[in-house]
Amino acid sequence: MNRLQSISQIQPPTYGNCITILSIDGGGIRGIIPATILSFLEMELQKLDGPEARIAYYFDVITGTSTGGLVTAMLTAPDEDERPLFQAQDIKDFYLHECPKIFPQLRCPFASIANLWKAISGPKYDGKYLHGIVKKILGDKKLNQTVTRVVIPTFDIKQLQPVIFSSYEPDPSMNNALLSDICISTSAAPTYLPAHSFLSEYAPGKHREFNLIDGGVAANNPTLVAMGEVTKQIFEENPDFFPIKPLDYKRFLVISLGTGSKSPDQKYCAKDACRWGVLGWLTSKGSTPLIDVFTQASADMVDIHISAVFRALRSESNYLRIQDDTLIGTQSSVDVATKENLGSLVKIGEDLLKKPVTRANLQTGICEPIEDEGTNEQVLVRFAKILSQERRLRELRSPHTKPVQRPNTPTVL
């Protein structure tokens, strides 16, 4: 019998040693980079626990913004047997096949002029194919049905407030929202895709209206948002987290996956930016500087903050941030969905696994290689073992699951 056949959802942290979080940044088509890394992690988990192992079975919370929100939903949306709809490898294949249709490329001598006109007159893409394919694959699945807890940030432009769709949220107008509507909303990057409005029915005849755009304007790296949601549950004495103490960050085990950023010599300079008006901030160097600036600032500030906290607690090894800040040319775009560029991004994800582990320099903010830590691939192998052992420990301690037979290996943090 398959070693995970009798297991459904992960047991609560109260039966284990740590709280496990997976976070995925926003970044358009660059979501294929974390999808490639997750495919490797899932294969390592399958080596340990059998072919039925899935990413969602090992994390208490999976969080994602924009394209990361779509990956989150695909990892956690249930099928008819309440198992994840998709394996990690399926998500990489989804990006390769669907992105060229989500972001169709103009192929004509006047493409640059056409793109400029779109930037002035409306979003670059109408979003119709994205909306259709997301609704097709996620169907009528709701936030309260995911295989494990999820946290997906969006931003309400009517209220001018972040709206965090969290599985921990008791508000029925939130947890009854369709995953498809949440994914379309968190992916609605200004200038690229249209804002999304929808009604969430939370009782017969009762609805709540949302007017949402890309969660990246609030939290392009949603790691801290997810940690905040968990911390609130601990403060509110949720029995799933008893007897974990508030602010006991040593108990967190976090994997945070970036979607890459421009190489320093490809970024913008003040000599150019000082002359930009509205159009300059929207269309320069083949990109949208305004979007690049606020999404990168959001992601880096979160990484610096979490790095500082884990370092202060001497638990740096419990936090893994995988990010590539050497992208050049179209590699750093969010929408150049050509076959060549998508293939290049897959290669970047594969190469990133072979690169040394990095951590943010708290003075400069630049990610620097860490000596004697090994490669990202080696650390993910270590994390896979910890995740497998943590799950096994919870199964043994929980009165709600029948223990499965596995090697008796102690949990190591």
Automatic annotation (TrEMBL):
Keyword Ubl conjugation: no
Pfam families reported in the protein's UniProt record: Patatin
Sequence motif GXGXXG, location on chain: 26-31
Placement of sequence motif GXSXG: 64-68
Catalytic residue positions: 66, 214
Keyword Cell division annotated: no
EC nos: 3.1.1.-
CDD domains for this protein: Pat17_isozyme_like
Molecular function terms from GO: monoacylglycerol lipase activity; phospholipase activity
Domain PNPLA: 22-227
InterPro entries: Acyl_Trfase/lysoPLipase, PNPLA_dom
Region (Disordered): 394-413
Alphabetized UniProt keyword annotations: Hydrolase, Lipid degradation, Lipid metabolism, Plant defense
GO BP terms in the entry: defense response; lipid catabolic process
Residue positions of motif DGA/G: 214-216
Notes on the domains: The nitrogen atoms of the two glycine residues in the GGXR motif define the oxyanion hole, and stabilize the oxyanion that forms during the nucleophilic attack by the catalytic serine during substrate cleavage.
PANTHER family given in the database record: PATATIN, XYLOSE ISOMERASE
Record's function text: Lipolytic acyl hydrolase (LAH).
Protein name: Patatin
Lineage: Eukaryota, Viridiplantae, Streptophyta, Embryophyta, Tracheophyta
